[in-house]
């Protein structure tokens, strides 16, 4: 017996819907190789490599961000360009790269962990029928991966902040760490192991917000561009636009915590709840709400290029050297 016209129409619509879902999924997050039908996904260490590569390019902007956020006579009273010229005249161009080894070490720990956990968990939970995990699930995964990554990356972050802050200290107050490893040893020897995790609660809180703003929201913006604007998921312009929106979201979410984290890490005392409270009160009394967004423009200028570079490098690593899911 022949099928009724209504049933045939329903089956055609269902087949068309399934084909569109498969096409969208392939455009969104996978590169299909010639010898396999599965999508290509990142390896666990791609995030650390991409972030370290981006840090090498954007480190001077990070240095100037720290310069603006920490206390000092010059901080916050000059434009970014004027402050940069002042630093170069006083300390030389290479001063902008103070703490580069610590920054690279931080990315190889912090970013490797958070990208690795996020991607592995996301791939584990997503089903064959899904195009993308729901945003709230990705936010939870990103928050968890960010917390673990933040804890692991705190020691090199402490060294990084201190090395960068040397550009505005008098010679007798400079710490003059030669590199990240020597800085870690000096802090451990003079201040004890707890000093290596000074401000870790702030780092973890910030890392949670960074990971939500970068990882979860990058996927979301990319999904919107592919599904609503019909852009190809493996094109660089899609990666650039998605990561640009993600960087803006990330900066808005993290700037208040970033200011507090930088100020606390630059202290010599052990970080306590009382110290965090005191820093919040002092900052608010001295600068008001705007104080929590001190250095917002330098931070955005730094986070924007860094985030774009991270995801462009990350996606290219995935496309060229990723694993094929069958």
From TrEMBL:
Solcar repeats lie at residues 42-124, 137-224, 234-320. InterPro entries: MCP_dom_sf (IPR023395), MCP_transmembrane (IPR018108), Mito_Metabolite_Transporter (IPR050391). Keywords: Membrane, Repeat, Transmembrane, Transmembrane helix, Transport. One of its GO terms (cellular component) is membrane. Its main location: membrane. SUPFAM superfamilies: Mitochondrial carrier. It is a multi-pass membrane protein. It is found in: Membrane. Belongs to the mitochondrial carrier (TC 2.A.29) family. This is Mitochondrial dicarboxylate carrier-like protein. It comes from Dermatophagoides farinae. The lineage of its organism: Eukaryota, Metazoa, Ecdysozoa, Arthropoda, Chelicerata.
């Amino acid at each position: 017996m022949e099928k009724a016209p209504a049933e045939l129409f329903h089956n055609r619509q269902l087949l068309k819907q399934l084909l569109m879902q498969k096409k969208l999924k392939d455009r969104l997050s996978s590169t299909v190789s010639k010898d396999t039908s599965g999508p290509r996904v990142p390896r666990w260490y791609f995030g650390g490599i991409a972030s370290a590569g981006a840090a090498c390019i954007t480190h001077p902007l990070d240095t100037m961000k720290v310069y603006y956020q920490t206390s000092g006579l010059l901080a916050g009273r000059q434009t970014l360009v004027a402050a940069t010229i002042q630093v170069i005249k006083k300390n030389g161009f290479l001063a902008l790269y103070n703490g580069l080894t610590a920054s690279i070490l931080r990315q190889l720990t912090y970013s490797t962990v958070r990208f690795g956990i996020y991607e592995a968990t996301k791939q584990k939970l997503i089903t064959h029928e899904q195009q993308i995990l729901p945003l709230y699930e990705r936010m939870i995964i990103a928050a968890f991966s960010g917390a673990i990554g933040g804890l692991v990356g705190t020691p090199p972050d402490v060294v990084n902040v201190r090395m960068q802050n040397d550009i505005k200290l008098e010679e007798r107050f400079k710490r003059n760490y030669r590199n990240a490893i020597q800085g870690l040893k000096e802090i451990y020897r003079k201040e004890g192991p707890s000093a290596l995790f000074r401000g870790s609660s702030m780092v973890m809180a910030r890392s949670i917000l960074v990971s939500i703003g970068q990882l979860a929201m990058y996927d979301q913006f990319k999904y919107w561009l592919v599904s609503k604007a019909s852009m190809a998921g493996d094109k660089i312009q899609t990666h650039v636009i998605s990561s640009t929106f993600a960087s803006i979201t990330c900066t808005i979410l993290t700037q208040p915590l970033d200011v507090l984290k930088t100020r606390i890490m630059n202290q010599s005392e052990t970080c306590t709840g009382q110290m965090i409270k005191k820093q919040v009160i002092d900052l608010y009394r001295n600068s008001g709400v705007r104080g929590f967004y001190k250095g917002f423009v330098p931070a955005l200028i730094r986070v924007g290029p860094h985030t774009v570079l991270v995801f462009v490098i990350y996606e290219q690593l995935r496309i060229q050297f990723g694993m094929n899911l069958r």
